[in-house]
Amino acid sequence: TEGKPRVTDVLSFNGDAAILLKLAAIAEKRSEHPLGEAIINEAKSKDIPVPDAESFEAIPGKGIIAKYDGSNILLGNRKLIADKGLKGLQSLELEIGKLEEQGKTVVILVVDGEFKGIIAVADTVKEFASEAVHRLRERGREVIMITGDNRKSAQAIASQLGINRVLAEVLPQDKAREIKALQGKGKKVAMVGDGINDAPALVQADVGIAIGSGTDVAIESGDIVLVKEDLRDVVTAIELSSYT
Questions:
Q1: Strands across the sheet with 71-76, in order?
Q2: Which run of H or E residues covers position 20?
Q3: For position 214, what pLDDT does the model report?
Q4: Were 154 and a residue from 56, 96, 134, 168 both cysteine, which residue would form a disulfide, CB within 3.0 to 4.6 Å?
């Protein structure tokens, strides 16, 4: 995907979407995740002030824990909610499931142990991504999507692209382990990535292919950098290597 997600749905359980968005943006203000940026941009577009949190902790692959105005804020996915032992998520599953089936990522906001609402964020598929996948498969390459996102959302995106195999809900530190498992089966693995979370997997892969518009750490970790951000250049790189 483009890595430039935007907020599509804000569902507040007490009817005040502005407060929900404000608290979520406060929690995400110091985050470097594209999802957090989408929430902050949505708050700014609605002229909602976003003050600093009193404390902030990012839990990789799960979400954010913050404190603001004496309240404890949790903003994240199911794993974060489960880690904190909070009950009552079952009642939200129908609504969350509907959004995820549309290819959206859902974050849940909890304030002082009480569920306050959910925010859905969607990203757009990169131009030429589908063509790149098709051309790789034509050349007999197996294409796998690896993502920290939830399974339903990942499957929705994968089906758009013609990708049959999805490794979803993979924590950042486990991406490299998944690559290693594929290598353990005798496969040569090229990993394409652009985020902070992708760096260890890019290093672990036989060939790390970084997207030039991505984070510095990803670019530093890659063996090949796609300067134009065109995923068809993954195919070009493989074809070029066959000549050399």
A1: 6-12, 114-122, 105-111, 71-76, 63-68, 55-59
A2: helix 17-28
A3: 60
A4: 168
| Residue type (1 letter), 218 | A
> Which residues, at least 6 apart from 186, have a Cβ–Cβ distance to it below 8 Å?
none
Q: Which residue in 148, 134, 154 sits closest to 77, CA to CA?
A: 148
Residue 53 φ then ψ, to 5°: -75, 155
**Residue 215 in this model has a pLDDT that exceeds 80:** no
Residues in Cβ contact with 221 at an 8 Å cutoff, skipping those fewer than 6 apart: 198, 199, 200, 202, 203, 208, 210
Cβ atoms within 10 Å of 113's Cβ, excluding its own = 12
3-state secondary structure of 79: helix
- The pTM score is 0.77
Q: Which of 97, 160, 17 is nearest to 9 (CA)?
A: 17
pLDDT digits (tens, 9 = 90+) for 227-239: 888 999 999 999 9
Number of helices (H) and strands (E) in the chain: give both, helices first. Answer: 10, 11
Place of tokens 């359980």: 13
